[in-house]
Amino acid sequence: MEAVRDFIRDFTACGDGAQGTDRGAAPARQPGMDAALAALAALRAVGSTAAQDAGSWGFQAASDFAGSVEELSRTVEYLQLVAAAAVDRTRKRSAAATGAAAGAVTAWTTGWRESPAGWQTGAPGTAEPAGDSAEATPLGTSVAAAPADNTLTEEPAGICLASAPADESEAAAPAGTPSSSALSGASVAGAPAGIPFPSAHAGTPATAAPAVPESVLDDGYRNTVEFLRARLRIGAAEARRRLCLADALLPRQGLAGQPVPPVHPELGAAVAAGEVASRAATVITLALDRVRHSCLPEAAAAMEHALTRTAAENDADFLARVSRSWAEALDQDGAEPSEELLRQLQGAFLRKPRHGLQHLEIFATTDQFEHLITVMNTATNPRTG
Prior knowledge:
This protein has helices at 2-10, 33-54, 59-102, 224-232, 236-249, 265-272, 278-291, 297-313, 316-330, 339-345, 366-380; strands spanning 106-107, 113-115, 118-120, 252-253, 259-260, 347-354, 357-363. The chain is mainly alpha-helical. Among the domains are: 266-330, no CATH class; 339-380, no CATH class.
């Protein structure tokens, strides 16, 4: 138990460094990673003997240990939010960097790639020069680069033309064999579109463009939720909850990189300090999202302060009741239904009979409900019947 207390006192929050996709691989050393690894080792040491040590504890010692572990869990839950946000941010940043490095080259499963110059094959990032043309060359006809206008002429079969470089270092190829000389930016007409023709300066071999760097999005996961589910062995709902909560409680960055305060700063500070659990913070954010369009910002801030203090001092069940009361007080009529929702739900529907009784389900607006109640009360009133 002393090790747990020392860890809670000395542990510092991790940064964005916890990365990696291999479950068994050692994590990369980043700021805060050493502290996390040391804390993990200390907790494992405590857990190896906790069951035996608990047998000798009294009630006071057991309750103190339970409180310390719960405080520790709230700190770990905050670090889970930080880690989830870091994974999501780095994945998006890697995708943006990969798209810029690819030069707008889109890869398809057929092996063909589209570039600003047209369709092409081969390594990513290799583009065919545009703007050159060549005449069609019959089968068996050899071609050579024209030094001036980049045009090719037809030659009889079996005759090979070799370009004449300045240093006379290139010899003619055997009859019927295409020249190995490079076409200086020329493309052969009549060939399938997108097939690059070898090109280079005379006497200099062509050098392929560097390949597009591997993207983190090639790890086989569609989004960050799927990645977290596989990497952390958690459910998709839990991964989505962590990402949504991190987006509401953690500081953000603007388009120019400037720091932006979190959506709920007071609640975020309480969660970072270990005063409010992650699940309780989710209850509060859902209640605040419900009333954000139907109340003033001052009222929403007062609600956030009250619910944050309630979560720090009471249990989750009491917090749920208080948050429901706040939401109903600030939004008594509820959100106004949209036209699409009215088309989907509005009306009277015949349901399956139950216990010999007919079941009728009605979805109506407030005005429609008042008219229906008036008609039914009038029809069932014995004085007016």
